Amino acid sequence: MTKAELAGYINKVHATATDAEITDYLNEASRDFLSQTKILKGTISFTTTEDLRNYSIDNLVNGAYQDEIFEIYQVDMDGFTMNRLINSPDEVDLT
């Protein structure tokens, strides 16, 4: 959402707010949001199984991140960094 779109929403509630006031409101909301969030980085190790392509993330982390949103940045296997898939694989196996 752009600043202009956010300003439009603020103007609906605060019709007399100036551009400077709206900017202050948006900056305050941004600071408030950032003060209530955190970024964590960590590693998870697990044992793979032959012929098993997909793993449940809940099982990998023992439920530690059930309420968290996270992204996998890198996968290392036997000391090598795995390349990311750019396209979907030709064959899909959801077993």
Describe the structure.
- This protein has 95 residues and is mainly α.
- It has a domain at 3-35.
- It contains three helices and two strands; from the N terminus they run H-H-H-E-E.
- Helix 1 crosses helix 2.
What is the gist of this entry?
This protein is mainly α and 95 residues long. Helix content is 34%, strand content 4%.
Uncertain stretches of 5 or more adjacent residues: none
The backbone outline, from C-alpha atoms, is elongated
Count all strands and give the number.
2
How are strands sequenced across the largest beta sheet? 1-2
Output the radius of gyration: 22 Å
Q: Enumerate how many helices there are, as a single number.
A: 3
Largest sheet: 2 strands, antiparallel
Strand content: under 5%
Listing every helix as H and every strand as E from the N terminus to the C terminus, the arrangement reads HHHEE
* Structural class by sheet pairing and helices: mainly alpha
Quote the average pLDDT: 80
Task: Report helical residue fraction.
Answer: 25-40%
Could you tell me how far the N terminus lies from the C terminus, measured between alpha carbons in angstroms? 38 Å
List the topology elements:
Blueprint: H1 3-13, H2 19-35, H3 57-60, E1 76-77, E2 80-81
Antiparallel strand pairs: 1-2
Helix pairs in contact: 1-2
Characteristic terms for this protein:
mainly alpha, 95 residues, elongated, 34% helix, two-stranded antiparallel ribbon
